Amino acid sequence: MHRNACRDALRVFLSLALLLMADMAQAEHSTPYIPAHPDIVLQLVPPTTDPRVRQFTRLREDLQRHPNDAGRAVALAMAYIDYGRSTGDARFLGRAMAVIAPYMIQAAPPIPVLLVHATIQQSRHMFQASRNELMQVLKRDPGNAQAWLTLATVAMVQGDDETANDACVHLANASSDFMGIVCTASLRSLTGHPEQAYALISMVEDPGPKAPPAVRAWVEGLLAEAAARMGKPVVADAHFRNALQWTPGDNFLLADYGEFLLDQGRAQEAINLVSGDTQSDTSFLVLVTAETALGLSRAKGDVAEMNARFKSMEQRGDHVFMREQSSYTLHILHDPNVALELARQDWQVQRSPKDVRVYLEAAIASQDPSAATPVLDFIARTHLYDVTLNPLVAQVQLAQATSGKAALTRRNP
């Protein structure tokens, strides 16, 4: 595989694998909003001191000089996607979509354009649309490593292990770097073999001196997830810290580490971690959860703000954060029935370990263990192992058995 193609595949995977929380569209209003006070902040503008923001100007000017160059359009779109992923600012996904829009109306869009569009569709949780576009690419170019990589990622998010495994095998055959190993390891981590996953990923923990910081952070993040799944929090913590040394402001890495700290009962550390990233909904949710756990006075105001954010998402038809909303509704608003319904809706879209967890927690809290049957069936099929999930699984199974015995007793007094 050509080195530049390998690099592009890595960038797309980084845009997809960790984080899946992109918030795309801004609502249109019939009348313009006029703030009641001049101090109200309408929008934070990316700082021009950020070299990535300065790069936008250079790439836009380059595209303006060559308006019919699909390669230049893809370069600008990928810069927007990478920035949006790392900051949690979904507006940049919209900008990326606008850049490639002229090419998407063609009967056969250029393959790099189609790959970028599939990435955006995946980030919007339009997984089937993303898969359809990836299959179009692979029909035209069966050896396209980037397409196999993205397909594997989408399939893993959906819990489609068969497709993910097939894609990882094709990726290993199509690429000459370590991406096939990482792909297989990621799948092993989700199918009951986190120890094997950790060992495999450790083989590429140092991807070489020329690897960009984002790649190093990504590998450390995968190691952190595998270690946490095995029940090794000290090891996981070290990998999270290593990852943040490479990409200190990465939005989804901050949120993932913040959630880990909350699980470890380290709420104040979680606040310290995400307090500078509260424009991101995911980081702000970590902050609200930590403040509530500590009983801080400012939690009430931030809960109101989080409620407003979720309401805004619902009004514009944004359903990307259903898992987060389910967890928030359960643990902060203490409404298990609504949380369970949100978990059910989320389950139709994605089935990662975090989706499994919130579904089980909501079923237990709502005293409806039978509702978790689809999740138990999924775990039985995939052999998913996670120390945070195993006690929940046992609790649901016990509740189901108890309710079954009670029903039998009622039928046969």
List the helices and strands and how they pair.
Elements: H1 3-16, H2 51-65, H3 70-87, H4 91-104, H5 111-123, H6 127-140, H7 145-158, H8 161-174, H9 179-190, H10 194-202, H11 213-230, H12 233-246, H13 251-263, H14 267-274, H15 281-294, H16 299-315, H17 322-331, H18 336-347, H19 353-365, H20 373-382, H21 390-411
Structure characterization notes:
It is a single chain. This protein has helices at residues 3-16, 51-65, 70-87, 91-104, 111-123, 127-140, 145-158, 161-174, 179-190, 194-202, 213-230, 233-246, 251-263, 267-274, 281-294, 299-315, 322-331, 336-347, 353-365, 373-382, 390-411. It has 413 residues and is mainly α. The N and C termini lie far apart (70 Å).
* Fraction of residues in H or I helices: 55-70%
Number of helices: 21
What would the average pLDDT be, to the nearest integer? 85
- Pattern of helices and strands: HHHHHHHHHHHHHHHHHHHHH
Label this structure with key terms.
mainly alpha, disordered N terminus, 70% helix, 413 residues, 0% strand
Summarize the structure.
The protein is built from 21 helices and no strands.
